[in-house]
Design brief:
Number of helices: 10
Order of helices and strands: EHEHEEHHEEEEHHEEHHHEEEH
Helix content: 25-40%
Shape: globular
Strand content: 5-15%
Structural class: alpha+beta
Strand order of the largest sheet: 9-10-11
Radius of gyration: 21 Å
Largest sheet: 3 strands, mixed
Oligomer: single chain
Number of strands: 13
């Protein structure tokens, strides 16, 4: 038998502890016990190639998974640590649209997040990442690229391959947003040597093939993995897309995490909700339609039912026409890409000091605490803990918002 090698990335992010404590203090996703247990889960949902015939551009055929001949695993310990310090998970949806916030006293302006979906998914603390941290993100992304150029990724186990592509996609996307922050709408961000849209810029090069974020999704993963749950592993950097967990994908946890990500998204308002006239679904399903939902309505509803809660199952039973919901493209940070007002107040989370934050972030955290209270009342927390916010003050000083909606 082959020995199991560990391909360790060499980057050490020395600035991790400088990120505010609240970035990892909301225990509303997987707790440590669940994470450890997930390493032992073995499923078959992402182990067979897709049956839908999709034309894949010739250069990307070299990334088609082959029979496993290598038994190495890639160690994502560094990325794990980074995510634990920069990702704020907002927990499961309570399926209540958040009201538009009141403007700051003395102005009609509302800074920060205003989306009805702002208390769903997860947030990345982009506004707290300094130059050194951004440099380290770039170094780590290059390290992952280097690993893929040194070994034949396609000869690893299929779960190992899937975890790699998901992590590489998310590292690259977060790196680019961080390098260009503040960013209002990530999809409109122009990056790379040719200043192309974030999803289409050829930011990566593996085995001589220039690769974009869209290529990873549509030319590598979607054509080669039959389970539509893989779509939920790709963080889009905005509120409308799937959440981001605060630890890395691995071959041991990838199936379970994708299942949990799918459940969170399907049961959130940004995934599915019923209106008086229609059943609204995310436009992300349109993107993956050629790969997973060619028999559109029937196959999509079958997929949604697989992950739906009783409440959502009732909505899916409706005979109303299916329509796409308005997708929220605003960056999934703490400030909606705005420049923060002057920091004030003293925020405590779960008894831990999180430091002084801007009024916009303080408002978001207060709203999150109100949501947590509702979740606790519904028994949604499973004794994982709560968020406690105390002694938050707001001052009526505001910096003019020059960003457009």
């Amino acid at each position: 038998m082959f020995g199991r090698n560990i391909l360790k990335t060499t980057l050490l992010m020395s600035t991790l502890l400088a990120i505010p404590a609240f970035a990892a203090s909301v225990p509303t996703g997987l707790d440590q016990a669940e994470k450890d247990a997930s390493e032992q889960v073995v499923r078959v949902s992402a182990t067979s190639p897709a049956t839908t015939m999709i034309a894949v551009a010739a250069p990307f055929r070299k990334f088609t998974p082959k029979a496993q001949t290598q038994y190495s695993t890639i160690d994502y310990e560094v990325w794990d640590l980074a995510l634990q310090n920069i990702v704020l998970r907002l927990g499961d949806s309570i399926r209540v649209r958040a009201r538009r916030p009141n403007p700051t006293i003395g102005t009609r302006m509302v800074k920060g997040h205003k989306s009805a979906y702002r208390l769903e998914g997860s947030r990345v603390t982009f506004s707290y990442l300094n130059d050194d941290y951004r440099d380290q993100l770039t170094a780590y992304r290059k390290d992952l690229e280097r690993v893929a150029n040194q070994i034949d990724i396609t000869s690893l186990g299929r779960k190992e391959q899937l975890a790699f592509w998901l992590n590489l996609h998310n590292v690259t996307l977060i790196e680019q947003i961080a390098l260009n922050y503040p960013v209002r709408q990530p999809e409109k961000l122009l990056v790379g040597a040719n200043k192309q849209p974030l999803n289409d810029a050829k930011l990566l090069n593996i085995k001589g093939v220039a690769i974009s974020l869209r290529d990873i999704r549509e030319n590598i993963v979607y054509p080669n993995w039959s389970n539509p749950d893989v779509m939920y592993g790709f963080f889009r950097g905005n509120i409308g897309g799937p959440a981001l967990q605060n630890f890395a994908f691995t071959s041991g946890n990838v199936d379970l995490i994708l299942q949990l990500q799918a459940s969170e998204f399907v049961n959130s308002l940004r995934g599915v909700h019923e209106t008086k006239r229609a059943l609204k679904v995310s436009s992300l399903y349109e993107e993956v339609r050629p790969y997973y939902f060619t028999n559109w309505s029937n196959e999509l509803k079958t997929h949604l039912r697989k992950h739906a809660s009783p409440v959502v199952l009732e909505e899916l039973a409706s005979d109303k026409p299916m329509e796409f919901d308005r997708y929220d493209p605003v960056v999934a940070d703490l400030l909606a890409g705005d420049r923060p007002s002057i920091a004030t107040g003293n925020v405590r989370l779960g008894g831990a000091q999180a430091g002084r934050v801007s009024p916009e972030i303080a408002r978001l955290l207060r709203e999150l605490e109100s949501k947590t209270t509702i979740m606790r009342g519904r028994g949604m927390l499973n004794n994982r803990g709560t968020v406690t916010i105390e002694d938050v003050e707001t001052i009526d000083i505001d910096i003019p918002d020059t960003d457009e909606e």
